[in-house]
Structure formats: structure tokens, C-alpha cells
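Ops channel
N.P.: pipeline sanity check, posting one input/output pair.
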């Protein structure tokens, strides 16, 4: 099974996305399932994971409706108000009954407080996710949030967490530390996974697999293939490339690894993590 473990949809007439504006150029429009489907077929992708694009119930409900009408959707990562545990508990009770709802994400990087995710109320809500065997996608954008992952893993050891986009390493500037040390510290926690996704938008305009290789190799050294999963980050990927480029260049970067490792990263890990 080939799984794209990180893609988005947004409909600008149905849901408000305050972060998205004309300055985002090619992605400032509605992107829906009919736009993605031919790209999946061309790449040979069997299932996708739709990940929330806004901290709202409207966005989560929209994703779940989309999943119900497309058999290639394997999972939805939605949203509940993690800083309001009582409300989160009630909403999780409802959402968990939907077979596509597999986990939660919050746009941590949009919060003014860089330490938002480690407040006691959020930790309490993360424990609610663990109790229901739901996952947490961590928007651990370096340098503000990646450092919190080991603390979260220690506080909620039964919660399966995944770091989106390898926490956006400083690829364009050929940066390394302290990103590498922070990623390694996160990987030392057995309940933490990571996504090989969103790397092209952290790279130079003429990026290729060779520019990403060092960061991908390091992630594999830290996590192993069984805790790494591929994601396109489409349509955000269109800011510096397209769906095909991300898929093909990622496969090139993985070409030197054993077949079982490639199969895990390109599908098996995501299928297990999100219970697809």
C-alpha cells in the first residue's frame, strides 16, 4: 500500500482560513478531491491522510464529508480545542465514532505563545487522545516547537505523535544545528514518529533530491523506517514544486535503501500509525 500521509483540502466558500491570503499565490484558491485524484492515480497512491488546515469544527466536518465520498481517503486528522479539555472531551466522543477520524492537529505555529502546546490544559487534552488511541500531529516548526516534543512524549507516553515536515529543517540555508540535536532528542522517544513531508518548501527554488538527501538520511538514522512516513503536503507543495516532483524526488532520495524500508516509509508506517 502506498500512502500519502499528509495532504490538505480547503474550500474558500465553505470554511474560513484566516492564514491563507493572496500573498500565498498559487495556493490561494479552493483545492478539493477532484483536483488531487488524478495526481494520486498517476503516482500510484492507494490512500491519503487529509490533515486539518484550520483550527475549526467546520474544517474537520468538511474533511470528514470528503472522506466519506472518496474511497482513497484512509484517515482524517481533525481538530478539537486542546486548550479547553472539557469541550475537547465532548467533541472527541462524537468524532471518534467516525471511522475516518484518526487524530488531531492544532496550528501551533499560528499561536503567539511559542510554548502554547506545553500548557497544562493542552497536556490534559492530549491524554484524552491517548485514552481513545487517537494520534497527535505536531506542527513542530523549528526553532520554536521541536524542542517541546520530548516533554510531550514524557508527559503522555501512550500518545502516538508524529512530527510534521521533519519540523521544517533549514534546508535552503544548509543549516544543521540545533535542528539535528532536537530531532534526535525527539526520536529518542519511542512514541514519536515523523513525516518526510514539506521539505521542498524549505529548500531552494531549484531543489532536487540531492538537496534533501542529508536531512532525509539523518531522519532515517534517528527514527528508522518504521517510524517515518511520506507525505506530499499538497497543495502547499505547489509553492515550490508540485505533487509529481515531491513524489519522484522523495523516491530518488530513498532509492539506496532496502525495499522493506522504502515500503515502510512510502506506506506501511502511515497505514499502521493511522490504523488505515
Amino acid at each position: 500500500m502506498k500512502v500519502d500521509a499528509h495532504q490538505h483540502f480547503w474550500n474558500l466558500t465553505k470554511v474560513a482560513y484566516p492564514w491563507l491570503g493572496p500573498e500565498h499565490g498559487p495556493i490561494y484558491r479552493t483545492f478539493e478531491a477532484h483536483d488531487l485524484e488524478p495526481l494520486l492515480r498517476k503516482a500510484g497512491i492507494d490512500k491519503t491522510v487529509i490533515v486539518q488546515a484550520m483550527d475549526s469544527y467546520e474544517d474537520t466536518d468538511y474533511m470528514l464529508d470528503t472522506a466519506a465520498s472518496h474511497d482513497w481517503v484512509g484517515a482524517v486528522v481533525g481538530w478539537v480545542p486542546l486548550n479547553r479539555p472539557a469541550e475537547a472531551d465532548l467533541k472527541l466522543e462524537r468524532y471518534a465514532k467516525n471511522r475516518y477520524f484518526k487524530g488531531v492537529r492544532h496550528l501551533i505555529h499560528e499561536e503567539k505563545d511559542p510554548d502554547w502546546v506545553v500548557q497544562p490544559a493542552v497536556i490534559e487534552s492530549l491524554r484524552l487522545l491517548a485514552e481513545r488511541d487517537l494520534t497527535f500531529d505536531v506542527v513542530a516548526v523549528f526553532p520554536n516547537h521541536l524542542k517541546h516534543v520530548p516533554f510531550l512524549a514524557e508527559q503522555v507516553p501512550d500518545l502516538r505523535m508524529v512530527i510534521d515536515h521533519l519540523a521544517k529543517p533549514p534546508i535552503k540555508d544548509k543549516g544543521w544545528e540545533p535542528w539535528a540535536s532536537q530531532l534526535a532528542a525527539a526520536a529518542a522517544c519511542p512514541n514519536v514518529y515523523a513525516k518526510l513531508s514539506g521539505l521542498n518548501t524549505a529548500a531552494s527554488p531549484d531543489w532536487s533530491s540531492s538537496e534533501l538527501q542529508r536531512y532525509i538520511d539523518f531522519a532515517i538514522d534517528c527514527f528508522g523506517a518504521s517510524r517515518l512516513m511520506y507525505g506530499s503536503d499538497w497543495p502547499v507543495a505547489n509553492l515550490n514544486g508540485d505533487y509529481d516532483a515531491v513524489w519522484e524526488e522523495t523516491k530518488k532520495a530513498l532509492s539506496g535503501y532496502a525495499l522493506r524500508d522504502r515500503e515502510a516509509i512510502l506506506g506501511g508506517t502511515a497505514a499502521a500509525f493511522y490504523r488505515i
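N.P.: looks fine end to end. The longest strand covers residues 73-78.
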